[in-house]
Specification:
Elements lengths: L8 E5 L2 H4 L35 H9 L7 H4 L3 H15 L3 E5 L2 H4 L10 H16 L3 E7 L5 H7 L6 H17 L5 E5 L9 H5 L10 H26 L4 E7 L2 E4 L4 H23 L4 H9 L10 H7 L4 E5 L3 E4 L32 H15 L3 E5 L16 H20 L3 E7 L19 E3 L11 E3 L1 H11 L6
Parallel strand pairs: 1-2, 1-10, 2-3, 3-4, 4-5, 5-7, 6-8, 7-9, 9-10
Antiparallel strand pairs: 11-12
Helix pairs in contact: 4-6, 8-10, 10-13, 14-15
Length: 482
Amino acid sequence: MSKFPQNFLWGGATASAQFEGGYAEGHRGKSQLDYIDYIDPIHRNNAHSTDLLTYERFIKNKEQEDSKNFPNRRGSDFYHRYKEDIALLAEMGFKVFRMSISWARIYPTGYEERPNEEGLAFYHQVFQELHKYGIEPLVTIIHYENPVTLTEDLNGWENPKMIDLFVKYAKTVIDEYKDEVTYWLGFNEINACLDNPYVSAGMFVEKSDKNYLSCCHQALHHQFIAQALVTKYLHETAPNCKMGAMIARLECYAQTCDPADEYQTLIEDQINCSFLDIMCRGKYPKTLLNYFRQNEVDIQMVNDYEKILQEGVVDFISISYYMSYVISSKPGQKENPGNLMKTLVNPYLKQSAWGWAIDPLGLRITLNRLYDKYQLPIFIVENGLGARDQLIQNTVNDDYRIDYMREHIKAIAGAIEDGVDVMGYTSWGCIDLVSASMTEMSKRYGFIYVDADDYGKGTYNRYKKASFYWYQHVIATNGEEL
């Protein structure tokens, strides 16, 4: 018998900035992600990410806007193809579709008093199309996407003025869609600010008078306050709706059984979980406050922040899980806790083409640990394999993706058997989209191939991969046949 409950939410996940396109239509404004230009691999210097945008490069990209290649502006053209795409998701049997709303499509600069009616109408149309097929929307209110005006004027989330602007936007979409959307997430991978403050918080650390960690944690504090205020509002105005916390989960292993390595791994886990502590328990854990003192992190807390956090705790946990990491206490190998990318290699695990450790058992471990700690339902809202797919005779033989997903779904089944309350699973990039880490189409995650390259050339037609039919069968059997 299937270990998955009958109401298990099978589906896939996307983000407006990487998938939607239509950036200049419907009176949409521009986001800070619209200014991340594509960098050819030969010029990347082996960097794991091309989106670490400096202020100098940002200014240059604005000056040369007409000649630069900005893949996020195109996405996968969901804006024009949403009916076709949703029909394909329905054919696979999706129960849920995770998507995000573009803040700049609702409030083009972030400052407007009234929302953009064309933007509101577009998402109504999307939700109506999903419900036509019985697909539940899971909506992220902000998925790495702030109006670029707020980056220029305020330096993004470093500025406390962002709280009121975001709450205005969030209340607007909650009021507008609360009868169409049950499941909500405030911020995508909120802890990503420590790794990439421009993408996650729309800010340039080099423009701040604070040191790096202080600047990032100041922005995070403002995001935690905004998340809590919006969660409280959702609970008061839409009691049938649920709000989730969302982090990039870092499951880590000590490099050796040296107690010093074990202790450093414990610190890593405590810092990663501190984000959930704040959103799920409504308070800053002492481990994080100790970390602030030890690392000269100086932030200004919002008035009554303790009360605000207590009144805005979430209903469930959601995580992205792609890989696990190795932690060392040794000088030269010790890394800043909480950063999403680590450099040490686990010799017991295979790696993806992008150097990400493939660790299905780590997912079972992390689900158990989080559930033991918080006793809240867990939604796996991102997981998947980025690969260079080859379209041959209108299909892709992606057995490597099927193998990856099969083992991770087995791990979820194992965690459910262990007693973990898992709500659902939405694989990342169910239809090919622009990669967040590399700003390219050629790193593909989907069950559906999009005929477009890193420069926007192609028909943008959709083609079913072998994994499409495999996942369709997984859903149809509720995970019994993998």
